[in-house]
Structure of MerR family transcriptional regulator:
Amino acid sequence: MAEDTVPGNVPGRAPRTAAPAARPDYRIEDLAHASGTTVRTIRAYQDRGLLPKPERRGRANVYGAEHLARLRQIGELLERGYTLASIKELLEAWDAGTGLGGVLGLVSEVDRPWSDERPARIGRADLIARFGGVADDGAIAEAVELGVLEPVTEPGAEEGGAAADAAEFLVPSPLELAAAAELYAAGVPLSAISGHLRELRGQVEHIAERFLEFTTEHVFHRYLDHPPTEDEATEAAGLVRRLRPLAQQTMDAELARAMRTLATRMVQRHLGDLPLPAALAGPATVTGPATVAGPGARDAGPPWASGVPDTVPVALPAGTVRSVRALVGARNTAAFIAAAAEREVRARTMDDLAAAGRRPRPHHEDDEGARS
């Protein structure tokens, strides 16, 4: 059989074999051009551990085909909506020999929004109008820092401008922005709203962390203590999909319970014995034996009554009720006010009788008295 030859073979001599294709080498500028990215981005990927280190040749760093392939993988995953943190996990699983299909499904299930709420956009003028019509660049900047607003950069616009100066903003949660607008309309300062959001976010993140620890301990630990197989990753993604609504449902139920309990308790504490709906505080007046007491004898019963035969709700200033409660205690507040009112009525009745006795009587009354 005739030998395969390559150009340059000489008859009668050992044939030359075809040289292997040369490995493509890239400087960082060439790699950026070939991958459609920038030198700065490549270096950022290296710092994050997304891209293998280049080969050092003398004073130059040399990149190869594997770097180009990795950059293209990263670009495709970014287009699908993955974050760089998620991409790093995926690539590590890929490097460990795990198929990306199931892992991609798992990461996608975890990484997608955990709410059905759709983001919206709002123009700067509309935003200012919703919050009193006066521009507050500091408040806008703080909202951007908190992620309540995200500046929309128009194509061709210069980077580096102040976030508060953007002409349009993305609103990840329109409901959250609407809540802030309602609070502001009710008189809450913007600084107090943002401060409360920071506090609330820290507490909610703690609750979310506890949810994750709980489900990891009882459900997901068998998938996370080793690189999952394709089937395991797919099964875990299905569990995430099933359990996802439970966190929101539990939070809704517990928040509703806590708000009702604590709000009722607060109303009772601040309004005390003022007339309230029966569901909140019951009768606003004393229906059992009344007590009248002063400092040092708060539990003593009154010498003049064993109870109140009839009761009528009466609205009193909250400050008055608080003062009386501080003096005699909540238990004796109603009885003290009733006793004070009775004393005032009796005093005025006695004054009226005394005044009537001092008035000059008509002569015919004197004559009648003499005849009698």
In short: DSSP finds 14 helices and five strands in the chain.
